[in-house]
Write a structure and sequence with these properties.
Low-confidence stretches: 4-12
Structural class: mainly alpha
Number of helices: 7
Shape: elongated
Order of helices and strands: HHHHHHH
Distance between the termini: 66 Å
Strand content: under 5%
Helix content: over 70%
Radius of gyration: 38 Å
Number of strands: 0
């Protein structure tokens, strides 16, 4: 009897078998949930990476375009102002040395080259109007340098020449300032738009 009872007890372990029966399905369920969670996280990370990559690409193109415009703006300001067209024209009036006329021509060529490159970009109405004003003043200075040479040949002195060839350069100065302000505004709003896009993508990922 004791032997049979022992064998029966060895086979029938109600408490242990009951626990194993409960734990095995729970483990399988937990494993499935873990796999599903990993899959969801992986998909979410992939979506996030793609969206952020697209935002970064758009931002990079915008920065490249803005940098190009800022570089051309700086070139126009340099070639028009001190050390450029205006500066050399005034020296030509005062001193009459042809070296200043030659320097003027060099600065003028670079100015019109920058104007042409900027005009070839996709322009806003503000930029188009500003560039037109800068170009008008540049053309006036081009005509003025020839006028100075003629007056000098006629024996006119610096004071007389200066009075005869005055050019209002305020439209060009204002045009440069307008483009500069426009680029700063565009950069500001582009930065805000990028931040909003990143925030939206991050929010939709969680």
């Amino acid at each position: 009897m004791n032997g049979a009872a022992g064998r029966w007890c060895a086979v029938w372990r109600p408490g242990l078998d009951s626990e194993e029966t409960k734990v095995a399905p729970l483990q399988r369920k937990t494993h499935k949930m873990t796999v599903l969670s990993v899959a969801i996280l992986t998909a979410g990370a992939s979506y996030l990476a793609v969206e952020l990559s697209q935002i970064d690409e758009v931002w990079s193109r915008k920065m490249e375009d803005t940098f190009q415009r800022q570089s051309l703006l700086m070139e126009m300001r340099t070639q028009l102002g001190y050390g450029g067209c205006i500066h050399n024209l005034k020296n030509y009036v005062l001193r009459g040395d042809e070296v200043y006329a030659d320097r003027f021509r060099g600065a003028e060529a670079k100015l019109f080259e920058a104007l042409g490159q900027y005009t070839g970009l996709e322009l806003s109405k503000v930029e188009s109007a500003a560039l037109a004003d800068i170009r008008k003043v540049a053309v006036l200075y081009r005509e003025t340098i020839d006028r100075i040479r003629e007056l000098r040949k006629q024996g006119a002195g610096p004071v007389e020449i200066d009075a005869a060839v005055r050019v209002d350069d305020s439209p060009a100065i204002n045009g440069l300032a307008t483009i500069d302000a426009s680029l700063r505004t565009t950069l500001h709003y582009s930065s805000e738009s990028m931040s909003e896009a990143v925030t939206k993508v991050m929010a939709s990922s969680f």
